[in-house]
TrEMBL record:
Family: Belongs to the GatC family.
Organism in which the protein naturally occurs: Paenibacillus naphthalenovorans
GO molecular function: ATP binding; glutaminyl-tRNA synthase (glutamine-hydrolyzing) activity; transferase activity
GO annotation (BP), single: regulation of translational fidelity
Annotated NCBIfam families: gatC
Lineage, highest ranks first: Bacteria, Bacillati, Bacillota, Bacilli, Bacillales
Record field: catalytic activity: L-glutamyl-tRNA(Gln) + L-glutamine + ATP + H2O = L-glutaminyl-tRNA(Gln) + L-glutamate + ADP + phosphate + H(+); L-aspartyl-tRNA(Asn) + L-glutamine + ATP + H2O = L-asparaginyl-tRNA(Asn) + L-glutamate + ADP + phosphate + 2 H(+)
Role summary: Allows the formation of correctly charged Asn-tRNA(Asn) or Gln-tRNA(Gln) through the transamidation of misacylated Asp-tRNA(Asn) or Glu-tRNA(Gln) in organisms which lack either or both of asparaginyl-tRNA or glutaminyl-tRNA synthetases. The reaction takes place in the presence of glutamine and ATP through an activated phospho-Asp-tRNA(Asn) or phospho-Glu-tRNA(Gln).
Name of the featured protein: Aspartyl/glutamyl-tRNA(Asn/Gln) amidotransferase subunit C
InterPro entries per UniProt: Asp/Glu-ADT_sf_sub_c, GatC
HAMAP family xrefs: GatC
Subunit structure: Heterotrimer of A, B and C subunits.
């Protein structure tokens, strides 16, 4: 796959960027160099390599849930702008 100046112009238009002729040529060369480098990955033998989701193993990143008593509803409703039937009442957001 190769990037053309037309491709760069198309992406620049989508991004609402104005590029000069030199910039278009430079970006075309740079993007083609990136693609050429990425194509080297196709040459690697990845058989037997297990997929990973993290580069480093993550252990114990989440704490266990602990049930704790919550505030009494009366105290919670003291901070509410309005309440109805023991629930916080907020303005409707749908028309």
């Amino acid at each position: 796959m190769s990037i053309t100046i037309k491709d760069v112009e198309h992406v620049a238009a989508l991004a609402r960027l104005e590029l000069g002729d030199q910039e278009k040529e430079r970006f075309t060369e740079q993007l083609n160099a990136i693609l050429k480098y990425a194509e080297q990955l196709n040459q690697l033998d990845t058989d037997g390599v297990e997929p990973t989701s993290h580069a480093m193993p993550l252990v114990n990143v989440m704490r266990e849930d602990v049930v704790k008593p919550s505030l009494p509803i009366e105290k919670v409703l003291l901070n509410a702008p309005d309440e109805e039937d023991g629930q916080i009442k907020v303005p409707a957001v749908l028309e």
